[in-house]
Amino acid sequence: MNLHTLRTEYKSRILGKEDVNKNPLHQFEQWMKESVEANIVDANAFALATVDDKNHPTIRVVLLKEVNDFGFVFFTNYESNKGKQMAENPFVAMNFHWKELERQVRIEGLVEKISDEDSDDYFNSRPRESQLGAWASPQSSIIHNRPVLESRMEFYAQKFKNKIIPRPPQWGGYLIKPSAIEFWQGRTSRLHDRLLYEWMDGQWVIERLAP
Fold this sequence. Notes:
By secondary structure, the protein is of the alpha+beta class. It has one domain (3-125, 169-209): Pnp Oxidase, Chain A (Roll), CATH 2.30.110.10. It contains five helices and nine strands, in the order αββββαββαααβββ. It has helices spanning 24-37, 81-88, 116-125, 128-136, 146-159; strands at residues 45-51, 57-63, 66-67, 72-77, 91-98, 103-113, 171-185, 193-200, 203-209. Helix 4 (128-136) packs across helix 5. The protein is globular and about 60 Å long. The relative contact order is 0.19.
């Protein structure tokens, strides 16, 4: 297979400083809305990069569950690899890729846990099977085989049978508070549009980057 020949010419849209919202979080909401309306599968999926205690980067795909005036919210197990890494080093990076719209958004910032009350509210909105899964999975831990996981799922299904399932203490939400957000729009001849928002002196400053 010759990967040299794989090439796509991007030409569906343009991105100029005069076209975007001065607040990148509002601009992101607009792009997310357009991605959902375009019926992109898992439009809220993003790559989350963290760094371990040896300064080795790690990346995985997770799901965005909220964007607000403070940043981006997602949920996971606090005792997972990413949870432990974020506890050690709160600097993280995110990347959204909507290939159907020839767009990317790159985000850098600090992560912090959201309140227990907000985590409870989201957990209570999840399907019951997903709630049980949060109890059953010792996320990132080594397990002998899949039946171990299935056995744990059955254990908690019986434990909480005909009961409201509480949020596990090791599971909850995080808020990523951005310091930089870059919007990338594919263009012809690899001369892509890149607009970078950076938080400086209490305001967002927008600059155009070379592709």
